Amino acid sequence: MERRSAAPSQGAVPASLRPSRRVGLHARAGRFLTPYLLIVPAAAFYAVFTIYPIFRQFDVSFFNWQIFPGSQSPFIGWSNYSHLIQDPEIRTAAYNTALYVVITVPVQMALGLFAAAMLTDRLPASTLWRALVFIPVVTSWVVVSFLFAYMFSPSGGLVDTVLGLFAGHAVHFDWLAQTWSANVVIWLVGIWKGVGWSFIIFLAALDGTARDVIEAARVDGATERRIWRSVVIPSIRQSVVFVLVLLVIGAATVFQSVWLITVGGPYGSTNVLYTYAYQQAFTDFAFGYAAAIGSLLAVVLFGLSLAEIQVLRPRAD
Questions:
Q1: Which residue has the higher pLDDT, 268 or 2?
Q2: Which of 38, 89, 116, 187 is positioned for an S-S bond with 203, CB 3.0–4.6 A?
Q3: pTM value?
Q4: Where is pLDDT greater, at 136 or 224?
Q5: CB atoms closer than 10 angstroms to residue 49
Q6: Contacts 24+ apart (CB under 8 A), 242-247
Q7: How far apart are CA 131 and CA 115, in angstroms?
Q8: Residue 4: is its pLDDT beyond 60?
Q9: Where are the domains of the chain?
Q10: pLDDT of residue 24
Q11: Is the pLDDT reported for residue 1 higher than 50?
Q12: Who contacts 66 (Cβ-Cβ below 8 Å, separation ≥6)?
């Protein structure tokens, strides 16, 4: 008798229509690789224009680097770094850089946190006020620097004009020719430019705080000061660390405002590390020494950032 093949059961998918195991593997591999393929262009750009220059800078710092055709760049070892210890101008630049960090970073964070706490959704026209606080962040450093230089100009500057109205006579104080007043102008530029950045980070962090915990603390009779110390600040601690680390790095590498407003100030008295390194590289053509300044600053900032994260990070109970 002729045997007939058993009829396929109802609802069964024919073998020819079933996806093969190879197709399934390809689909899973594609889903796994797609995110990495998408970041390849950005990663390559970052590696070529950021990572490579950093390591190249460390390499150049050990040479008396020359860029002129046919000139030699002899290896001099640690000579550039030993010269850093003996250079009196680098002490002034390092002092100004440290002072800029110590003054501008806490003020930016305090004002940013205060603005974030005040400009909540319950405030009328909060969107407009938020935009006004953030506008300086997206404004060009060049525009801001020239604006402040004009405001503090001794010939018809806005600040001298306003002071003259209160004094009853014309005021012609050259703010940018005096060491301390020029530094104050630079600090004001950095604070005004950077408050909006810390503000937007703190605003996002405050929006993520547990409102029910805050309301429960108020019901229990806790004061606003106690709520901020015991509830709000611990909940945004990671954001505080993030803002602190990035603001310190940004302040320690300040360049545009100092260079555009004072060009190093009178006798280099307002120089910071980056402006001094720029002068060494492109005025004195001491590229190896400039690279040593940048390399040492990079190492110091790396260690300082690690210390900040270790000290301020939330600890498990």
A1: 268
A2: 116
A3: 0.83
A4: 136
A5: 9
A6: 242/201, 243/109, 243/112, 243/198, 243/201, 243/202, 244/105, 244/109, 244/308, 244/312, 245/305, 245/308, 245/309, 247/104, 247/105, 247/108, 247/109, 247/194, 247/197, 247/198
A7: 12
A8: no
A9: 91-312
A10: 62
A11: no
A12: 72, 73, 285, 287
Closest CA to 257 of 239, 270, 244: 270
pLDDT of residue 204: 87
> If you ran DSSP here, which 8-state letter would residue 266 be given?
G
Please give the backbone phi and psi of residue 75, each rounded to the nearest 5 degrees, phi first.
-75, 125
Residue 218 one-letter amino acid: R
263/45 Cα distance (integer angstroms): 31
The per-residue pLDDT for 209 is 75
CATH number of 91-312: 1.10.3720.10
Tokens of 40: 């390849």
Would the pLDDT of 301 be above 90? Answer: yes
Who's near 295: CB < 8 A, 6+ residues apart?
A: 57, 58, 61
In the numeric block, the tokens 């300086």 are attached to: 136
Q: What angle do CA 114, 116, 119 make, to 5 degrees?
A: 105
Place of tokens 């460390």: 58
pLDDT band for position 8 (50/70/90)?
Answer: low
Class of residue 92 by CB neighbours under 10 A (exposed 0-12, middle 13-18, buried 19+): buried
Max CA separation in the chain (angstroms): 125
What is d(CA 117, CA 207) in angstroms, rounded to the nearest whole number? 10
Mean pLDDT of 124-147: 88
Q: Which of 255, 97, 101, 262 is nearest to 178 (CA)?
A: 262
Residue linked to tokens 């197709």:
23
Cα end-to-end span (Å), the chain? 81
In degrees and rounded to multiples of 5, residue 117 shows phi and psi of -70, -35
Provide mean pLDDT across the span 208-225.
76
How many CB atoms lie under 10 A from the CB of residue 192? 17
